[in-house]
Amino acid sequence: MASLKQTMEQSLLKVAQTVEQQLDAELEKLENLDSDDLEKLREQRLKEMKKQAQQQQEWRVWGHGEYTEIPEEKEFFEVTKKSKDVVCHFYKSDSPRCKIVDHHFKILCKSHLEARFCKIDVERCPFLTQRLGIKIIPTIALIKDCKTKDYIVGFTDLGNCDDFSTEMMEWRIAQAGVIKYSGDLLEPPVEGKRTKNFALGGAGKKQTIRGRAADSDEDDDF
């Protein structure tokens, strides 16, 4: 047991020494830069910042940064052509759970400018709804490069509850690679940050749908 402990300590020490050597090498490289090298680094950084600013401006022109509604099917295909990453909420106006999705998307669209957040009324777009096989409301389509990568159907993947956090929604969307995510994709966020006392016209209450009992906890069939 003592031998194993010593081996582990030696391995950790080697790793630490390697990291330290790499840091020393990087610091030495920076210290040896002359004024011309520093100017090149500065110019490169300015170009990168300018490119990022132009990209963000282009995204905003295309509707990124806002949570908007797509009024008709034809526009849906235009949106997916212009925007590389699209998060689309298929909703019904009388669904309380769809209002919960609206709440989270209004927050996420601001912090994830790289993706277009939008929604579309399934009752106004029957062809698209049928083509994508939308049967449960709410359904969120995660689209990348004009291809549907994944679907979030109902709230099963979000803790199977109505008071999940915006962080949980963000983590689930990130699974499809349509938004940038700095956390651990293998582990969901701590649910101690759930949306507390969230209420929008009866959100979270059970509905009678197609003759089901009023205490059913399933999502709405479409």
UniProtKB/TrEMBL annotation:
Domain of life, per lineage: Eukaryota
- Thioredoxin domain location: 73-156
Coiled coil where?
Answer: 13-58
Which UniProt key words apply to this protein?
Coiled coil
Coiled coil is among the record's keywords: yes
Spell out where the chain crosses the membrane: none
The protein, known as? Thioredoxin domain-containing protein 9
- What is the organism field in this record? Coptotermes formosanus (Formosan subterranean termite)
